[in-house]
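Reopening this one. Same input as before:
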Amino acid sequence: MSDIADLETFACVALAGSFAEAARRLGVSPAMVGRRVQSLEDRYGLRLVERTTRSLRLTEQGQEFLAQAKRIIEGVEALADIGQAKEALKGRVRVSAPTTLGTKKLTGIFAGVIARAPTLTIELSLNDRKVDLIGESYDLAIRVGNLPASGLVARRIGTYHFVCCASPDFLARYWAPEAPADLTGLPCILNLNLQPRDHWHFLDASGQPVSAVVRGALELDYDEAQRMAALSGAGIVQVPLHLVEEDLSRGTLIEVLASWGQPQLPIHAVYPSRRYVPLRVTALIEVIRDGLKDNGCTQESVLRQG
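Same output, byte for byte:
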């Protein structure tokens, strides 16, 4: 078992980029990390890392050794996983997710998970910025939208739907638009996070894209603020369906342009590597996918640079 611990420590050093960060992730001292890597070097007669006071990099031998070490670690994990499916959800998982999706969907999904798996701890950070998974030590990120090329692994787990709506009071004072072009003459609540913020997109009956130029005196950068503004009668909004589905069911907001196609964005689970993924992370991804009830969207892809 000490050999496996040394290999896991070396793999963590390679991923973290420093002994200190690897020690923090593993919950041991930097000196212990150094001793484990030194033990591997002594045992196999290899120079695995080049150390300076400011940086660390793998040698060519270290790169080859890392590839073999990961195979061994994966094999040991596979043996440990046999017959332990019921114990997959245990330990701690650090998750980053967008604010609206996290508040409206993920917190409820995770509450159900914790009730069934009391040995699991989920640390959920809700923020609309794109976190650095490796640099900030996240196990998993849930992201909405098309993803840029990177070295991360992304698995599509759902679809983010949008809707246009307004309050009954607003529609009584103005009118309900029948086509996107009608929005030009109505006050709209603009989203500062959109580029450009004054163009909303739709699909006509044949699936062709249609763009509408919108205007409004209120421009906001937070989804919940847009919802509250719409409830107050400030204008029409185009927002995530998750945000307003309860308002729509209660009738406090009314959907408009329902016959026109609304924007849809993919929801991805993103994690650092296809290999050496803890079982609790892959199990949690499955739970999230099932909770989002979009089981047809499960394509996995590696996003490569270039």
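So the earlier flakiness isn't reproducible anymore. For the record, The chain is about 40% helix and 25% strand.
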